[in-house]
Amino acid sequence: MIAAQLRNFAPAASKCAARRVTLPGQLHQCIGAASRNLASSSSPRDVRAEASNARFFVGGNWKCNGTHASVEKLVQELNAGSVPSDIDVVVAPPFIFLDMVRLSLKNEYQVAAQNCWVKSDGAFTGEISAEMLVDTLVPWVITGHSERRSLCGESSKFVGEKTGHALDVGLKVIACVGETLDQRNSGSLWYTLDSQMQALFPNVKDWSRVVVAYEPVWAIGTGQVATPEQAQEVHAYLRTVLANKLGEETAAGVRIIYGGSVNDGNCNELATMPDIDGFLVGGASLKAPSFLQICNSVASRRTMAA
Ligand SMILES: O=C(CO)COP(=O)(O)O
């Protein structure tokens, strides 16, 4: 029943998103109206998600790439560049380079691990615990990346528990959600995203330490970036899901960032969308000039807000 309603939400949201581009302010009313229908059965709260007021955030996910020499070069190039002081920039090197990168990057940048174990230390061969990350002064961790969901079999429940544990021991978390092309095409986009989000709620006590990354699987590493309207439509929906659970004020402060084939040519347009609070960048984060340009796309957002 709820799943069916979530599917019905898609066309309404889509129509509204298209209108939002030319008629600022109406998308949230439309999304809000659509979500109120959902809320009547899925939640006792009746809320309308306000647009974001959150600080811009750019993450660079280096994935399983790099040699000692290439990582050193990338760090040098990032250090030679500059990023706006009013945004958060966080890079996630492979574990083996994490400490080296943390110690050699200048202060404008923070580091994240790409993953951690779901529990505390113990007999978990090959894993790194959240406690170890805290102990080695790593502030952030990525959880729920689609590559870990699909290649390592991580379920939403597992991702939720891992996210909760990482937060409980003091990390900040970039929690990823996103649908496959099949899920989008078969009409289960909203259901998929909602169930990934619902798995986080029982585990997260402090949403100020969570960044939600919307990464459609079909856009990751494919060069097929979501259009600004497609991304905005989903981000507004995710903010409504957050608002239904946490209230509008908290939801407006949660960063919702977009990932999937972001580069220096498409970031500015994406950054103008009211619910896109930044990016999680894969391939383009390995090229310092592109990554720095993506960080500077916050200027497009400021222009829109002015
Ligand atoms: O998975 C991603 C970031 O976590 C996105 O990767 P690409 O930017 O290479 O598509």
TrEMBL record:
The keyword Isomerase applies. InterPro entries: Aldolase_TIM (IPR013785), TIM_sf (IPR035990), TrioseP_Isoase_bac/euk (IPR022896), Triosephosphate_isomerase (IPR000652), Triosephosphate_isomerase_AS (IPR020861). The keyword Isomerase applies. GO terms for biological process: gluconeogenesis; glyceraldehyde-3-phosphate biosynthetic process; glycerol catabolic process; glycolytic process. One of its GO terms (cellular component) is cytosol. One of its GO terms (molecular function) is triose-phosphate isomerase activity. Keywords: Isomerase. It comes from the Eukaryota. Pathway: Carbohydrate biosynthesis. Homodimer. Belongs to the triosephosphate isomerase family. This is Triosephosphate isomerase. It comes from Tetradesmus obliquus (Green alga).
